[in-house]
Design brief:
The protein is mainly β. The protein is 0% helix and 47% strand.
Length: 434
Amino acid sequence: MKTALLLCGVLVAAYGIEGEIYHGVAVAPDGMNAWVVTIETTAVYHTTDFGANWQPQTIGTFRDFFDVCFLDELNGWTCGRVGDIWHTSDGGENWARQNLGGPKFATRIRFLDMQYGWSSGGEAILLHTTNGGEEWDMTFFPRPPYPSDTVDFQGVRFVTRETGWLVAGRFPEGGDTFAFGQGYITKTTDGCATWTLQRVDTVYDFYDVAASDEQTAWVVGGNDRTMAGVVLHTSDGGTTWLEQSLPGGTRFLRSVTFVGDHGWACGRNGTIIHTSDRGTSWVLQSTAVDTTLFDIEFADTLRGMAAGNSVVLFTTDGGRTWVRGLGGVGENPDFRSCIAGSRLAQLQVEPSVTQAGAVSLKVRRVPGSGMQDARLRVFDALGRCVLTRGLAIVDYGSDTTLDCSALPGGTYLVRIDTRAGSSTTGFVLLAGNR
């Protein structure tokens, strides 16, 4: 039998997106639709085929985004600076503003159902809706014990309409006099009417929280002096929080998510850790990136994405392998894009399979842009280059065939770089009897 291939199609054209800071990611329960939002720009990207193709979406604001959440493939919300909250009911084709004002930034947004949602914010402020976002109420937390100059709520999670947690942290900036951790954990059991402060930490800052029921939750963060990561766990509703043992090399954690007994957390220097026993033990997962990952979300125990500085990663095997799905692989300096963002930089790559089981690629440039020398490289799931080829790209297309018969089964990215731009496409090689 010949080798079988699942072709993933073009990921992105060279629109200069490799410099984006992907700060929030949402994966719909269908495991196919996903969205990422960016900080320091207002870019939003959507995929309907789990990262094979990405399309930009437009939200009419100049304020950047911190987070995004979707209940299904149609209904979602995003939040950002100055409490800017937007909603879509058609998968992001159209977005409508629901709120502006309140905290200096809205860091996380979470909806339990179509009516009840929460957004954590800076300066110890929580935004809360009970009617799908038509109205957002603000809760100003008292000082003391929540000093607004040091408490920025970074994470929020509710397990019922009444019970949920907020966590706070504050990453020090230049000249900051707050040299120690500013971690806060607080809980409500009456739908935000009252809050109980469960922990104040002078070592750790806390950035996200996950919960499976009213008694069980996990909080992640880190030490802003050593950059070591931390995971705290409660099984008694937050009366006690115990620090869980983490693998060596775990860096400051920014996001956590759980699906049943399985959990993942991500953070600095490409850190992703995984547990299959509700945090009794954690292991590092290899990402082959060395940049901060800000958000992570899974549709089930196999399909998940992580968003970070200039990169979005995806997995279809629970994180055993992570593949760059947006932002591409590191560029060779000799073929660095000189005019990223120009339509002259756009490349189109159409994969197909030959009778012999090799991958055939048709490469096109935008008509009228002339012939370009290019370098074609194939990367495995760990980011290692396994094939390299030079080629010339002409206006209306040229075919090249890659002999992949020597490669083991797995997920691969094909990267084509020219001095005018780059393009990335993916395929999954399913090793069979040759």
